[in-house]
Here is the input.
Amino acid sequence: MEQVRIVIAGPRGRMGREAVHMVMNTERYTLAAVLDHKYEGIMLSELEGFQGYQVPVYSEIEKCLSEANADVLIDLTTPEVGMYHTKTALQHGVRPVVGTTGFSKENLAELAAICEEKELGCIIAPNFAVGAILMMKFSQMAAKFFKDVEILELHHDQKLDAPSGTAVKTAELIAEVRETKKQGHPNEKETIHGARGADYEGMHIHSVRLPGLIAHQQVMFGADGQTLTIRHDSYNRASFMSGVKLAVDTIVNIDSFVYGLENIIE
Ligand code: NAP
Here is the structure.
């Protein structure tokens, strides 16, 4: 089988580290290089936790992509950097698999346009956990029958964006099938600002940040005399890696922009 040559951006991060081990331990993948803004001209094996990994480390994406002969860039960094990396990868003919969250609608539209122009595949997946994708799909299914819904997303306290990409994506999927409805009492008033959470087309999203958590989401529906709760929990970052693999294996064969793993999971 032909090897897929991969560059990982953010290799020392919690997700990046897991992705490095996954790629190194997958026979059909080659880790061609890693991109780390703090190191240049060393081998990954010189960094803690990567013993024996003879992979070059670059701090500059242009140089990295010119020399690595990569097929795919996996980005697990921060929103601004991730956007820059994704655009640069597409300019170099490298297909991005992006797990970094916090991209705006404008960012997504810009990337979709570049993919179309370059006829290159790119996947942006706010959540790589297959169970989380099912949670979103089940929520969309339930929203056809329940118009009242509140989304509660819970993450570790180092997360930079709120609400989570998964919560936003869930709200978007629900909004596709649910008539817009302003929830709660028409005269409700917050006595402390933010008590009712963020408002997305009348449904509310609440973000919890606590040490000890990884990534969790609960979608609660209510109707006369009943509630329905759909919940997913990621207990470690390995839970995301089967989705990353699915994205890599898919993107090498497609030439279009995909937002959300649910679009390739059928
Ligand atoms: P993290 O531990 O903070 O890792 C981010 C990494 O990016 C750090 O190693 C950081 O380096 C590095 N970085 C920052 N600026 C950089 C640059 N200019 N060039 C290269 N690397 C740079 O965060 P994480 O928990 O791994 O999460 C990473 C992203 O994935 C976040 O957006 C998070 O929301 C998202 N995420 C997605 C999923 C999913 O399923 N799609 C799941 C979990 C998390 P320093 O340490 O030197 O700053």
About this structure: The chain has two domains: 4-124+238-263, 130-235. The radius of gyration is 20 Å.
